[in-house]
Design goal:
Elements: H1 7-15, E1 19-23, H2 27-35, E2 40-43, H3 47-50, H4 62-75, E3 80-84, H5 94-108, E4 112-114, H6 121-130, E5 135-140, H7 146-149, H8 159-175, E6 179-183, H9 187-196, E7 201-204, E8 212-215, H10 217-221, H11 238-254, H12 269-276
Parallel strand pairs: 1-2, 1-8, 2-3, 3-4, 4-5, 5-6, 6-7, 7-8
The structure holds 3-methyl-2-oxobutanoic acid (KIV) and sodium ion.
The site of 3-methyl-2-oxobutanoic acid has 11 residues, from strand 6.
Pathway: Cofactor biosynthesis; (R)-pantothenate biosynthesis; (R)-pantoate from 3-methyl-2-oxobutanoate: step 1/2
Active site: 183 (proton acceptor)
GO molecular function: 3-methyl-2-oxobutanoate hydroxymethyltransferase activity; magnesium ion binding; methyltransferase activity
């Protein structure tokens, strides 16, 4: 099957078919997300944490995100691939934002970009969309500004903050976003935004009332041990499975149980005889 047309997402909202989005960071995860039927793949700047070992998304660079996006677009065919614009790649000016958005499309094969925030960022959205690159918005908990928000915590939990969030969402739609991520916001607020917007909303920690859901690859698969946010559902425990498998390999090497004959190349008898002479 060919690429999912971006306009199908609005049609999915209209017909009430939920949109399934997941992050991916390399060719195999892109290929597997495609095989599993995901509609949208986000090359999230969460890669800074899940793949690169940082403790926030702030250090992610354009160069890193381009490498990861190229790998994902080599692996994924049908899903829309959205590249997450890293911190510093769009805040400075509309011009820089457009330049970097175009790099994701032209140099890395992305179908769209995502950027965090409203307010000053509305102008960035308008400029990037004007240049012909579809933009996904992101409001609520915006990890690139977690420090300013006072940490990784749910947003829009007072009537006033919730109203501001609704205003931001409407403004992002007006600025030209084709879709909007709502992260860590109370479910009634996300449901209200979803009802008011013509574009599809994609929730993460935003309840069941959004038009789609997104989860981080490593969270969904249980690819690391330790604390997971409330909104994560783990569908596998791959960190445990990987540790078991690698431990079994290490033990086999130490005990000389691996390799066995089946893993080993032979040589014609006469050649062996000549060689050993
Ligand atoms: O970087 C990321 O993975 C994200 C999603 C959580 C929406 O922005
Ligand atoms: Na992100």
């Amino acid at each position: 099957p060919g690429k999912l047309p971006i306009t199908d997402l609005a049609a999915m909202k209209a017909s009430g078919s939920p949109i399934a989005m997941i992050t991916a960071y390399d060719a195999p995860s892109g290929r597997l997300a495609d095989a599993a039927g995901a509609d949208v793949i986000l090359v999230g700047d969460s890669a800074a944490m899940t793949v690169l070992g940082h403790d926030s998304t702030v250090p992610a660079t354009m160069e890193e995100m381009l490498v990861l996006t190229r790998a994902v677009t080599r692996g994924a065919r049908r899903p829309l691939v959205v590249a997450d614009m890293p911190f510093g790649s769009f805040q400075v000016s509309d011009e820089l934002a457009v330049t970097n958005a175009i790099r994701f499309v032209k140099d890395a094969g992305a179908d769209a970009v995502k950027l965090e925030g409203a307010g000053t960022m509305l102008s960035r959205v308008h400029a990037i969309v004007g240049a012909g690159v579809p933009v996904m918005g992101h409001v609520g908990l915006t990890p690139q500004s977690a420090t300013a928000l006072g940490g990784f915590k749910a947003q829009g939990r007072t009537a006033e903050k919730a109203r501001q969030l609704v205003e931001d969402a409407l403004a992002l739609e007006a600025a030209g976003c084709f879709s909007l991520v709502l992260e860590a916001v109370p479910s009634p607020v996300a449901a209200r935004v979803t009802e008011l917007l013509g574009i599809p909303t994609i929730g993460i920690g935003a309840g069941a009332g959004t038009d789609g859901q997104v989860l981080v690859w490593h969270d969904l698969l249980g690819l690391y041990e330790g604390h997971a946010p409330r909104f994560v559902k783990q569908y596998a425990a791959l960190a445990r499975d990987i540790t078991r498998a690698v431990s079994a390999y290490v033990a086999d090497v130490r005990e000389r149980r691996f390799p066995e004959d089946v893993h080993t190349y032979a040589m014609p008898q006469e050649e062996l005889a000549l060689f050993e002479k």
